[in-house]
C-alpha cells in the first residue's frame, strides 16, 4: 500500500513577541521563574496590526506551495483548523484560497474547502480527513493542504494570558510523503467536558486547573484505546513523543504519567525497583484514595531517576523547544511539537529514517487522539527547508505598553487605531472591512 502522510510543512509566526519572564512577569508582580521553570514559555508570538489567522495561514501556505513548486491545480482540498474564526458561515479556507488566487495563475475552484472545529485537536482531525480522502481514492492525484491557524489570546488578567501565542502551520498531505507516513492505528479519549470553551465569544472561558486534569485524563484514555489496537507501548518503540503543547510545563506532567504507564510490567519497572520500588497496583490498596497517594509518591521518585530523565531529554525535550519560544498556537501546537523534534534531529544529525513518533493531540471540551507516524526518506531535506529560526529571530520585541495596545487591536470588542510595529514585505496583509463586513486582504510586494 502506498504511504500517505505529511509531505511538507511550513510555519508562519505572528511577527511580534512578548518576553514573559522579563517584560510580562515584572509588571504582573510575578517571579520570572514561573515562566522559565514552571510554565516554560519564554516568548509569546503575537500578530502585528495587519496580521490575523488568514494572513498567517495564507503566508505559510504560499511558502509551502512555492517551495514544492505547486500550483492551485495540484491541490484538491483545503482544510483549515482553527478556533479563532471570525465568521460563523464562510470558512477561513475560502479567505485563504482567495488570498492565494491573487498571486498564482489558476484557481482553487475545484478544491473542496472546509473548516474543522474541535478546539486544538482540529488540526489533527483535518489531517485525518485528508488521509481518508486520499486513501478512498477520491483525490484524482491531487494533494491536500491542511492549515492550522490561531490567535490564542485570553482576556486581559486571565491566568491563560501566560500561555498566549499566534501562528499557523501549513502541511501538505500526499502519497509517498517526504516527512512522515501516517498509520491506521489510532486511539481516542473523548468526553463532554466544560474546562475551556468559547460560547459565541472571542476569548475563552477557562477553568485552568481543571483543564490540566482533563488533558491528562483524556490522553490516558486515548493511550489505552491506542494500546487496545496495537498492544502495549514501550518507551523504546518511539524516538519522539510530540504532544499537544499549550505550554511545556503541561507536557512535563503528561510525559511523567505516560512514562509510568508504558514502563509498567516492563524490564524498566524491574530495573527501577531497587531504587524506588515497583509501581503501586490498585488491588494492593484498601481504597482509591490510598492507591492514588501511593501513585503520587511513586511518580515523585520516578521523576528524579536518571533513567526517566535521560528518556525525557531524548524523547520529550526536543518536542517543546519551539513552543517555549512561541507559546500556544492551539490547533497548530502539536504540529509545532512534531516540527520541533524533527528540527532538533536535523541540528544534532540524528538519523530518523524508519523511526517512529507517537503523536498525542488534544482539544479541550474534550478529546485526545494518539497515533504513530513513521519518518520517511526525505524528512531531513524537507525539515531543513523550514525557516523556523530566522522567523523567530526576526520578531519585534514588544514592551508592556505596546503589548497592551496590540491586545486591544485584536480584541473584537475594541476599536484601536495603532501603527504597525513591523513593515510588511512579500506577504498577505489584512487591509480592512468590505461592504458586507467581510475581512479584506492584499499581497504586498
Ligand atoms: C496553565 C495555567 C492554569 C497556569 O495557571 P497560573 O495560576 O497562572 O500558574 P501557576 O501558579 O499554576 O504556575 C504555573 C506553574 O509554574 C510553577 N511556578 C510558579 N512560580 C514558579 C517559580 N517562581 N519558579 C518555578 N516554578 C514556578 C507552578 O508551580 C506551576 O507548576 P505546576 O505546579 O503546575 O507543575 C493558566 O495559564 C491557564 O489557565 N492557561 C490556559 C489553559 C491551559 O493552557 N490549560 C492546559 C491544558 S488544556 C489544553 O491544553 C487545551 C488548550 C488550552 O490548548 C485549548 C484547546 O484545546 O483549545
UniProtKB/TrEMBL annotation:
<dbReference type="InterPro" id="IPR016039">
    <property type="entry name" value="Thiolase-like"/>
</dbReference>
<keyword id="KW-0414">Isoprene biosynthesis</keyword>
<dbReference type="InterPro" id="IPR053544">
    <property type="entry name" value="HMG-CoA_Synthase-like"/>
</dbReference>
<comment type="similarity">
    <text>Belongs to the thiolase-like superfamily. HMG-CoA synthase family.</text>
</comment>
<protein>
    <submittedName>
        <fullName>Hydroxymethylglutaryl-CoA synthase</fullName>
    </submittedName>
</protein>
<dbReference type="Pfam" id="PF01154">
    <property type="entry name" value="HMG_CoA_synt_N"/>
</dbReference>
<dbReference type="GO" id="GO:0006084">
    <property type="term" value="P:acetyl-CoA metabolic process"/>
</dbReference>
<dbReference type="InterPro" id="IPR013528">
    <property type="entry name" value="HMG_CoA_synth_N"/>
</dbReference>
<feature type="domain" description="Hydroxymethylglutaryl-coenzyme A synthase N-terminal">
    <location>
        <begin position="4"/>
        <end position="175"/>
    </location>
</feature>
<feature type="domain" description="Hydroxymethylglutaryl-coenzyme A synthase C-terminal">
    <location>
        <begin position="195"/>
        <end position="406"/>
    </location>
</feature>
<keyword id="KW-0808">Transferase</keyword>
<dbReference type="GO" id="GO:0004421">
    <property type="term" value="F:hydroxymethylglutaryl-CoA synthase activity"/>
</dbReference>
<dbReference type="Pfam" id="PF08540">
    <property type="entry name" value="HMG_CoA_synt_C"/>
</dbReference>
<dbReference type="GO" id="GO:0010142">
    <property type="term" value="P:farnesyl diphosphate biosynthetic process, mevalonate pathway"/>
</dbReference>
<dbReference type="InterPro" id="IPR013746">
    <property type="entry name" value="HMG_CoA_synt_C_dom"/>
</dbReference>
<keyword id="KW-0012">Acyltransferase</keyword>
Amino acid at each position: 500500500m502506498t504511504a500517505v502522510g505529511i509531505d511538507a510543512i511550513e510555519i508562519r509566526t505572528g511577527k511580534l513577541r512578548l518576553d514573559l519572564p522579563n517584560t510580562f512577569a515584572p509588571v504582573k508582580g510575578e517571579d520570572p521563574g514561573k515562566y522559565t521553570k514552571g510554565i516554560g514559555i519564554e516568548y509569546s508570538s503575537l500578530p502585528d496590526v495587519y496580521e490575523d489567522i488568514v494572513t498567517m495561514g495564507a503566508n505559510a501556505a504560499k511558502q509551502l506551495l512555492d517551495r514544492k513548486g505547486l500550483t492551485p491545480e495540484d491541490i484538491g482540498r483545503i482544510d483549515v483548523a482553527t478556533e479563532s474564526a471570525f465568521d460563523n458561515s464562510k470558512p477561513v479556507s475560502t479567505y485563504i484560497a482567495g488570498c492565494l488566487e491573487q498571486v498564482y495563475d489558476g484557481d482553487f475552484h475545484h478544491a473542496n474547502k472546509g473548516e474543522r472545529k474541535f478546539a486544538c485537536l482540529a488540526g489533527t482531525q483535518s489531517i485525518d480527513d485528508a488521509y481518508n480522502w486520499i486513501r478512498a481514492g477520491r483525490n484524482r492525484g491531487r494533494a491536500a493542504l491542511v492549515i492550522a491557524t490561531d490567535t490564542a489570546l485570553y482576556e486581559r488578567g486571565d491566568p491563560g494570558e501566560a500561555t498566549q501565542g499566534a501562528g499557523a502551520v501549513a502541511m501538505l498531505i500526499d502519497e509517498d510523503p517526504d516527512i512522515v507516513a501516517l498509520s491506521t492505528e489510532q486511539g481516542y479519549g473523548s468526553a463532554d467536558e466544560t474546562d475551556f470553551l468559547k460560547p459565541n465569544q472571542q476569548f475563552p472561558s477557562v477553568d485552568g486547573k481543571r483543564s490540566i486534569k482533563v488533558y491528562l485524563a483524556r490522553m490516558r484514555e486515548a493511550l489505552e484505546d491506542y494500546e487496545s489496537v496495537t498492544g502495549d507501548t514501550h518507551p523504546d518503540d518511539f524516538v519522539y513523543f510530540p504532544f499537544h503543547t499549550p505550554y511545556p510545563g503541561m507536557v512535563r506532567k503528561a510525559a511523567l504519567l505516560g512514562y509510568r504507564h508504558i514502563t509498567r510490567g516492563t524490564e524498566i519497572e524491574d530495573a527501577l525497583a531497587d531504587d524506588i520500588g515497583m509501581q503501586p497496583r490498585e488491588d494492593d490498596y484498601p481504597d482509591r484514595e490510598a492507591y492514588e497517594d501511593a501513585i503520587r509518591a511513586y511518580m515523585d521518585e520516578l521523576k528524579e531517576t536518571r533513567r526517566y530523565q535521560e528518556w525525557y531529554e531524548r524523547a520529550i525535550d526536543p518536542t517543546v523547544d519551539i513552543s517555549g519560544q512561541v507559546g500556544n498556537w492551539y490547533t497548530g501546537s502539536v504540529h509545532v511539537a512534531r516540527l520541533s523534534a524533527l528540527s532538533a534531529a536535523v541540528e544534532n544529525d540524528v538519523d530518523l529514517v524508519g523511526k517512529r513518533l507517537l503523536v498525542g493531540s488534544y482539544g479541550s471540551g474534550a478529546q485526545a487522539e494518539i497515533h504513530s507516524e513513521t519518518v520517511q526518506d526525505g524528512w531531513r531535506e524537507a525539515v531543513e527547508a523550514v525557516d523556523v529560526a530566522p522567523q523567530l529571530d526576526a520578531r519585534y520585541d514588544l514592551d508592556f505598553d505596546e503589548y497592551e495596545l496590540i491586545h486591544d487591536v485584536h480584541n473584537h470588542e475594541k476599536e484601536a487605531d495603532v501603527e504597525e510595529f513591523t513593515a510588511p514585505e512579500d506577504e498577505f496583509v489584512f487591509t480592512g472591512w468590505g461592504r458586507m463586513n467581510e475581512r479584506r486582504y492584499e499581497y504586498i510586494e
